[in-house]
Design goal:
The complex is a heterodimer. Chain A is an alpha+beta fold. In chain A, strands 2, 3, 4, 5, 6, 8, 9, 10, 12 and 13 form a ten-stranded antiparallel β-sheet that branches. A two-stranded antiparallel ribbon of chain A has the order 1-14. Chain A has a two-stranded antiparallel ribbon with strand order 7-11. Chain B is an alpha/beta fold. Helix content of chain B is 33%, strand content 16%. Chain B contains 15 helices and 17 strands. In chain B, a hairpin with a 2-residue loop joins strand 16 (475-477) and strand 17. Chain B is globular. The chains are: A alpha+beta, B alpha/beta. Chains A and B meet through helix 25, strand 17, helix 27, helix 28 and helix 31 of A and helix 1, helix 8, strand 6, helix 10 and helix 11 of B.
Chain lengths: 1018, 497
């Protein structure tokens, strides 16, 4: 009893007692007897291995060492500071734990307090911390299932069918008959290449009487370069691919297509899926990574970039990293990790700490644009470069041959020279400081290199002493340097700078504090922007200034000369203070500079410094280097030599540029920032530091080294022990071939996902996928040759009632094709389609006014000309703020987030689009022309030809009759309305092909491309 | 209902017409039932027409909303939230306690100074609402206005801010308010889209993401009406094809689709037929909508449809000539759409992002919008539509009481920076209480002093007036039930009439 009382007292008094006095009492607490049972009975339902609310588990020592989402809840030896105590005591009633049932008893509370104050030791023998456990099917490795027994064995073409049939039979359903061959042909063409079969392809298939005609067709389509386009577009949805930054500025990314090309190519080559994953997540980390492998990391460069003024770069960086975590989880693992960004996942066993364990991989990632020439580009450059080098060498030889003669003429020229007396005297700075916090390094040439912190604005102050008189001018050289962005000379992103004010003060050396401004009479510069002239640096207005931007060759040394109003000097010495005020912002400051003074009239100082210095040395005393300097300079003005020199200069100006094509890639940050959990997901509220790790409920994460990187992450994802990766991708492959997945929520395999309709089939496919070396083409071949796939998609009233969503697969599905395919199919049958594969994005005609919706005319849409404008839909430049209207109309995702399944809407805007838009009307006109030129001469023949061209099949009798009636009615109407016909027809010919006739066939073409069946994969 | 089935049903976004409007829609639907192809229940209108009007959760006050979005963020200091202290302390720094731990987009904190407003405020209406001289016409509607001076948001930059005001969160991919409302309530319109977007001036930071349906089916996406050329993209038949020719083509498309349906029993085909018929009706309804010839001279004059901004404003125009006309016409169009059953209308105007030269630029923008917005409210009222039509006016955040002194700016302290901590917006009609001024800011207008209203709260209140419980209007996506108010929001009852 006394023990109980003392514990009780302890529990209440602990907040004000010192730890020393409590230690005595706590010896009496037995963790296993007094504390652990409380945790087990009252806490671990919510804070245990299956559910870890707020990321907290009280079933093992991690409770003490890690705590929950917001950090430690137990501070050993200090129950007063332990959040756990505050909660179980119910200091704030709403926060009391446990939230349900009776509060903990006083005895229990004081026992826990005493245990904490004794050091919160969790005895090893009582520490049974299990890994996170879950009985959710998707978190357990798929096992190879037995093939189920079925009655109709003759229907089974491969194991897939056994699984599907077994389920149908158990429901008392029978599969649909096989679709007719033409439907299958068109289905396969649309599913595998996204293009309808041409009449020739139809004919070839019909004529192929071999028993393997179907398999031959499948193999031919899998080998088609258009396969990569079709399946690549599926992947680009997941990769949130776009050709622009997004947000307000929405700058175009001209080289985003390099990643798209990589995807198309990888799929065409049937790159094993595990490699496909590894290269996209960590291609840059692979040993001896190739350019292509780095290009693959463009997957995560499709994140949005905010270039809006006034943003916090760290906020944008963390947003991007978070998007990369969420996208990685949903695309490769089918996990919706996003919730865990702010708190431990409510449904899935993923803690917030684990979220930031994964965040770590992208927290230490930086973006890098690398040269990535496309095929042929490098070879062409090398050839040009070779030719160029040869020509330069030839000219230089010629020049060298003439050098002795030149040397002979040199003294003659030197004799005519009137050298200025002093030239420029470079100042050696005594002190220098950057108001913005940058640092300076003095280089050998006495210039100052600005390094370190790069503030938005800056003011440099340079102090120097001179002992001289008669100084007439000051020179400021802004110099390039390899350490500067784009070589400088400025520190802005493009190397520009803005000098708002240049001020000079002088003081006698003995009274250095007595500074007086030195008046500058005028200023000149070797280059200035028309709107930002050098005059503006001495106009007393800090809002104006000198800048040096130009489109070509801006990264060169720049010189500004300031002529003084009065000669300056003091024989006893002067202290000169220079102030370089640079307030424009956005880091438009000077990156390297040097100051000089002269006693000469600055107009006479036309010779470069080094030439002037060399000429001041008597000819016989010059070093070889100085001799060359003089001779090189003279060569340019020598009347006999100058022609050759000019030719050389002209040739050098045509130097071929190395391939401009770049790729957006990831790279590892050489100085990775520390990785913290963000409390409530707020990047400003840093919680515990968290090492790289992966959710414990999945396969074990074993990094190559302690310093886990993205390659470890990728290898963990494609580890055969990972229960999700193969299932998620196999499910998607299935979805693209049936219109819905076995799990209908392909991005969410978590506990709240729709349970799979055919779990055993899914596991069979997943294990088969890995067994076949992750060959995606193999899996597609397997699925499309199954009897399940080959069923007719026609429904029946009975089926419709029993299984309206067709989850049991008693038939194929019938669905409208995707946005890009709507376009491709129309262009294809019209004969306009440009079938080129890969390359930069194109801008087909955009209705006027659409581009204006972008912010402040940021979107420029320079329409592509034919044949580029007839390329497939996936090559249309995707501008995030102004997406191409036709694509959006047909549910193309907006590319802001990863999308695993598209909507399939059916709207009047779609009808208007295909009926009326110029692109589709042009296709109808082209098809109309084809009908007349390529089809037979009679109406019925033409109708048949057009129908088969569009739909691959022959029209039925009723369909044909209806179309014949239509053509007659339409022709009659156009005859009575010739003006309308003239507008509608492409170009009629009054003799052979009157307008009303031409217009009628355009109208028929327009009818056919608007048919539901034309836009549908059956 | 099984959520996945529900989702798919919704995602059909079939425009298959209801009996009243469909050409053949009724016949097809009844044929289906006769054939026993679908049970009565299975051919619910939800399957065939996702925009069919749906009952709200409880009795609504509002049926339609006109959201006038002043993108770029108007200055509440110069329009709605009178702060004499700012003028008294003009040019002085703000007490440090205000700006501690505060971010700015462009202001240089160390040298920032207070910028007072020279705008004169006066009492309006019987309620005595204090409004700036820049809004004389809107002032005459004061007794119908519900002015909130205590709005706040987390967003700091334009695109995230506009996304926040439209979708309730700053991240992309969520549906906007207009999409949520048409998803929840459908549309009363038989031949126009349920959610229409009108713009004047230059583009907004958010572009088309400001009217995206996000993860909702694109049926619920805003349909942009255009200011020149055809009112809806691709509305006009190509090459001026006469109507009878268009009809002839549509007839054969319908007949062949129907034959295909009889083969496949795919209800999608019926939806396609419905879509084509609605498209055809839109071809005549939309031109009728934008034809103002049936409006009286007085109405046209009230909106100021023929106003020209005048040459003196040339340098301030942000969106090319005829901005005044376009904006006024958009206000009138909005009323005409409400009359035709359109559920949600956005009127966008950019830009109100006055980092410099605020006095002149704000005056220009107010001259543009004051008269037509007031006309819209009065016109709705005189037609008995204001009670059921919510008019909302506001931007994505507010502007600082400090002048902007951005580095390198030619004229510092003539503008204001972004201010998310406190800003103003107003609503009228649709169940909002008139003559109300709600919420207060501190003496500097920096923070909210009383009755804060977060954007989530505003959305919750607006949905409430439409008879919708913001916690019940959800959509399952990626394993989570999403809502317009994300994880927060409470109905602000004092705003409700």
């Amino acid at each position: 009893m006394s023990q109980v009382i003392s514990r009780l007292v302890l529990g209440i008094l602990i907040p004000i007692l010192s730890t020393a006095s409590t230690a005595v009492e706590s010896a009496a607490v037995d963790f296993v007897r007094d504390v652990q049972p409380v945790f087990v009975e009252r806490c671990i339902d919510c804070h245990g291995p299956e559910t870890a609310k707020a990321g907290l588990r009280l079933d093992g020592s991690a409770a003490v060492t890690l705590g929950g989402d917001s950090g430690r809840v137990i501070v050993p030896h200090d129950s007063a500071a332990s959040e756990l105590m505050r909660r179980i005591r119910g200091d704030v009633p709403e926060d009391r734990m446990p939230p349900k049932g009776e509060p903990l008893s006083r005895e229990e509370i004081s026992a826990i307090a005493a245990w904490i104050d004794a050091g919160a030791v969790w005895p090893a023998e009582a520490d049974s911390t299990e890994g996170t456990v879950s009985d959710h099917w998707a978190f357990h490795e798929p096992e190879r299932p037995e093939l189920p027994a079925v009655e109709r064995k003759d229907w089974v073409r491969n194991p897939i069918d056994a699984f599907v049939l077994a389920r149908l039979e158990s429901e008392g359903l029978t599969p649909s008959p096989e679709a007719d061959p033409i439907t299958l042909l068109r289905r396969l063409h649309l599913d595998l290449t996204g293009l309808p079969p041409t009449p020739e392809e139809v004919e070839a298939f019909v004529d192929d009487t071999s028993p393997h005609a179907y398999e031959n067709l499948v193999n031919r389509l899998l080998a088609s370069p258009h396969f990569g386009e079709r399946w690549g577009r599926h992947w680009l949805d997941l990769a949130r691919y776009a050709d622009s930054d997004g947000y307000e500025k929405d700058t175009v990314r001209p080289y985003a297509y390099r990643y798209r090309d990589w995807v198309i190519d990888a799929l065409n080559r049937d790159m094993p899926y595990d490699q496909f994953v590894v290269e996209q997540l960590a291609g840059d980390v692979l040993p001896n990574a190739t350019v292509d492998q780095k290009v693959a990391t463009g997957f995560h460069r499709n994140t949005l970039t905010n270039r809006e003024g006034g943003i916090d770069p760290e906020e944008d960086r963390s947003k991007i990293a978070i998007d990369r975590v969420n996208t990685t989880a949903s695309v490769f693992l089918g996990l919706t990790m996003g919730c865990a960004q702010c708190h431990t996942h409510k449904y899935d066993p993923i803690t917030q700490r684990e979220y930031y364990g994964m965040y770590s991989f992208f927290n230490r990632t930086i973006e890098q644009d690398i040269p990535a020439p496309v095929a042929g580009e490098m070879e062409a450059y090398k050839q040009q470069k070779q030719r160029f080098d040869a020509e330069v060498a030839r000219l230089k030889n010629a020049i060298a041959e003439q050098r002795p003669a030149l040397e002979e003429r040199l003294p003659e020229w030197e004799a005519t020279l009137e050298l200025p007396e002093n030239g420029w005297q470079v100042l050696d700075a005594d002190s220098y400081v950057s108001a913005g916090g940058a640092t300076f390094t003095e280089l050998d040439d006495q210039s100052l290199l600005v390094e370190g912190f790069n503030p938005l604005t800056d003011q440099y102050t340079v102090v120097t002493r001179i002992q001289d008189i008669g100084i007439k001018a000051i020179r400021l050289e802004a110099l390039t340097h390899e350490d500067l962005t784009n070589s400088g000379p400025g520190r802005a992103h493009n190397g520009n700078l803005v000098l708002n004010e240049f001020k000079v003060y002088a003081a006698p050396i003995r009274e250095a504090h007595d500074k007086t401004p030195v008046k500058i009479a005028s200023a000149t510069a070797d280059f200035e922007e028309p709107e930002h002239t050098i005059d503006q640096s001495i106009d007393g207005d800090t809002n104006t200034g000198w800048a040096i931007y130009r489109e070509l060759n801006m990264n060169e040394d720049r010189t500004a000369t300031f002529v003084l109003e009065e000669e300056l000097g003091d024989p006893t010495g002067l202290v000169l203070t220079f102030e370089l005020d640079q307030r424009y912002g956005r880091q438009h400051t000077i990156g390297r500079f040097r100051l000089s003074v002269t006693k000469d009239d600055p107009g006479s100082l036309s010779l470069p410094d080094d030439v002037f210095a060399a000429l001041n040395v008597p000819a016989e005393a010059r070093t070889d280097e100085q001799k060359d300097v003089v001779l090189d300079y003279y060569a340019q003005i020598d009347p006999e030599m100058s022609g050759l020199m000019q030719t050389l200069a002209a040739v050098e100006n045509t130097a071929p540029q190395p391939p401009a094509t770049k790729a957006q890639t990831l790279a590892d940050n050489p100085e990775p920032p520390k990785n913290y959990l963000f409390i409530r997901g707020d990047f400003l509220q840093k919680g515990d530091e968290v090492p790289a790790h992966m959710p414990a409920v999945l396969n074990e994460f074993v990094p190559r080294t302690e310093d886990a990187d993205r390659l470890d992450l990728a290898e963990w994802i494609v580890d055969p022990a990972n229960p999700l990766t193969a299932r998620v991708q196999a499910n998607r492959v299935w979805q693209y071939l049936f219109g819905q997945g076995i799990v209908t929520t392909p991005e969410d395999f978590g506990t709240r996902c729709e349970p799979p309709t055919h779990p055993a089939l899914l596991d069979w496919l997943a294990t088969e996928y890995m067994a076949r070396g992750w060959s995606t083409k193999d899996m597609i071949r397997l699925i499309v040759t199954s009897a399940t796939y080959r069923q007719s998609s026609d429904s029946t009233p009975d089926l419709q009632e029993r299984d309206p969503m067709n989850r049991l697969l008693a038939r194929q599905n019938r669905f409208r094709v995707e946005a890009e395919i709507v376009r491709d199919a129309c262009l294809s049958v019209s004969g306009l389609l440009n079938r080129g594969v890969g390359g930069p994005s194109v801008r087909p005609p955009l209705p006027s006014g659409v581009a204006d919706l972008g912010y402040a005319n940021s979107v420029k849409w320079n329409e592509s000309s034919a044949p580029e404008k007839y390329r497939r839909g996936l090559y249309i430049l995707f501008q995030r703020t102004v997406p191409y209207p036709m694509l959006m109309n047909f549910d193309c995702p907006d590319s802001n987030t990863s999308v695993s399944r598209r909507e399939r809407s059916n709207t009047p805007l779609q009808a208007l689009n295909v009926l009326n838009s110029p692109v589709f009307f042009e296709a109808a006109q082209a098809l109309g022309t084809r009908i007349m030129t390529e089809g037979p001469a009679d109406d019925e023949g033409r109708i048949r030809w057009a129908f088969e061209t569009c739909l691959a099949r022959e029209p039925g009798d009723a369909e044909l009759a209806r179309l014949v009636t239509y053509v007659n009615d339409q022709r009659a109407l156009f005859e009575s309305r010739n003006e309308a016909a003239v507008r509608f027809a492409v170009d009629g010919d009054p003799e052979t092909n009157p307008e009303h006739e031409a217009a009628t066939w355009v109208a028929l073409a327009r009818v056919l491309i608007n048919l539901d069946e034309f836009l549908t994969r059956e | 209902m099984n959520p996945e089935v529900g989702r798919r049903l919704q995602s059909r976004r079939d425009f298959l017409t209801t009996a009243a409007s469909g050409v053949g829609g009724l016949a097809l639907a009844s044929m289906l039932r006769q054939d026993g192809y679908l049970a009565e229940a299975a051919v619910s209108d939800d399957v065939t027409n996702p925009l069919r009007p749906r009952p709200p959760h409880f009795e609504p006050r509002a049926k339609a909303c006109i959201f006038i979005f002043m993108a770029g963020a108007p200055s509440q200091i110069d329009l709605f939230d009178e702060k004499p202290v700012l003028l008294e302390q003009d040019g002085k720094p703000l007490p440090e306690s205000f700006t501690e731990n505060v971010r700015f987009a462009f202001i240089q904190k160390d040298t920032a100074v207070i910028k007072g407003s020279h705008r004169k405020f006066s009492n309006h209406g019987e309620c005595g609402m204090r409004l700036s001289e820049l809004l004389p016409h809107i002032g005459t509607c004061a007794d119908d206005l519900c002015l909130i001076r205590s709005m706040h948001t987390e967003a700091f930059n334009h695109h995230p801010g506009q996304t926040m005001m439209n979708t309730g969160v700053m991240t992309f991919g969520r549906p906007v308010m207009g999409s949520w409302l048409t998803y929840g309530l459908g549309s009363e319109s038989q031949d126009l889209p349920g959610y229409v977007v009108l713009t004047a001036g230059r583009g907004t930071s958010g572009g088309a993401s400001n009217w995206t349906s996000g993860f909702l089916p694109s049926t619920y996406e805003g349909v942009l009406f255009r200011n020149s050329g055809e009112p809806v993209l691709n509305l006009n038949s190509p090459a001026d094809l006469p109507h009878d020719c268009q009809r002839l083509g549509l007839d054969v498309v319908r007949d062949l689709n129907q034959m295909r349906y009889e083969q496949t029993y795919d209800p999608e085909i019926l939806s396609r037929i419905g879509s084509y018929e609605l498209a055809y009706r839109m071809q005549s309804a939309a031109p009728d909508l934008i034809d103002f010839s049936d409006e009286s001279e007085a109405t046209l004059a009230m909106y100021g449809v023929d106003r020209r901004e005048g040459e003196q404003w040339k340098s301030l125009r942000s969106g090319g000539p005829d901005e005044f006309q376009t904006f006024a016409a958009n206000c009138l169009l909005a009323r005409r759409m409400v009359e035709r059953g359109v559920r949600f209308i956005n009127i966008y105007h950019a830009t109100w992002d006055h980092h410099d030269n605020l006095d002149k630029r704000l005056e220009f923008n107010c001259k543009m919008c004051d008269q037509p917005v007031a006309a819209l409210i009065k016109d709705l009222k005189q037609r008995g539509l204001l009670d059921s039509t919510m008019v909302v006016w506001g931007g994505e955040f507010g502007r600082t009481p400090l002048g902007e002194n951005r580095a390198g700016f030619r004229e510092p302290n003539t503008g204001r920076d972004h201010h998310p901590y406190a800003f103003s917006m107003f609503a009228a009609g649709g169940g909002f209480k008139g003559g109300v001024t709600y919420g207060e800011t501190d003496e500097f207008g920096w923070n909210i002093a009383k009755d804060p209203v977060h954007i989530n709260d505003f959305h919750a209140t607006a949905l409430h007036l439409f008879g919708l419980d913001h916690e019940q209007l959800t959509y399952r996506y990626q394993g989570r039930d999403f809502r317009l108010t994300d994880v927060a929001g409470k109905v602000v009852t004092p705003l409700i009439a």
